[in-house]
TrEMBL record:
Enzyme Commission no: 2.4.2.17
Predominant location category: cytoplasm
Name of the protein in its database record: ATP phosphoribosyltransferase
Enzyme class, spelled out: transferase
Domain Histidine biosynthesis HisG C-terminal: 230-302
Reactions performed catalytically: 1-(5-phospho-beta-D-ribosyl)-ATP + diphosphate = 5-phospho-alpha-D-ribose 1-diphosphate + ATP
Amino acid sequence: MADVINSLSDRLLFGIPKKGRLHEHCLSLLSGADINFHRHNRLDIALVQNLPIALVFLPAADIPKYVADGNVDLGMTGQDMILESQVGDRIEQLLELGFGKCKLEVQVPVRSNIKNVEDLVGKRIVTSFVVLAGVYFEELDKKYLSDDQKKEGKKTKIEYVSGSVEAACALGLADGIVDLVESGETMRAAGLQSIAVVCSSQAILFRNKNPSNPSLVSKLTSRIRGVVAAQKYVLLNYNIQRHSLGEATKITPGRQAPTISPLEKDGWVEVQSMVCKNNVAEIMDQLEEIGAKDILIFNINNCRV
């Protein structure tokens, strides 16, 4: 793989999660940004056909280090991975991507006597995030361990496991775990409950502070920002009597201002406006109440805002 990378000196290298919870979302984002490529089976490098870019498919946890060290120019992964890698001062965050949202939480068995994080101080923790868990419990140790316990060298024990963290308590390996929670279904199925949040996370686009092609990084960022914005909005189109226009535009002010066009029917206008997707049903109800007609919704695939 090293020889292949060395042959791509004329291309911007873009690190993409090769599998896992972020992989498909990242591919969808690239497609929306018109980044066209074909990835051959079992190959972790794909050449983009319409831009001088090479996609490098890497474990999500490794991407922050590759970007920070300058092995690749930019990447997409979770904020939790960047915090765990301790490279935040060596990369530049460009854009929150709006997916992969989760929380790194401290969890214990529902049936245990442990009800808060203070009860875990000095006990055993199993996690894939030993850096973040270590920093978190180091502060708790300072606060809750007695002077005698500190002199004896007692502290919360953090142990690493790479997967199936939620099984650690049931197997007697730990008193609690630190793990990512999205919906919470896996946690509840394992008989666990959350007692504290270490940090929140979502997928981000980030770059090395000295990328090989800054102008291309800017172009990519603009395209991806447009896709992310388009996922949040829809285009609302409706007709309204002119005397109700002021009230209507308060309901649909748009990002800058709505587009208003006169209709052939006297006293009527057509209005187009970008509105938040998660509030569109309520907006349509309000427009209907003030007499709007022919209310239509159009999906937006990409935009510049």
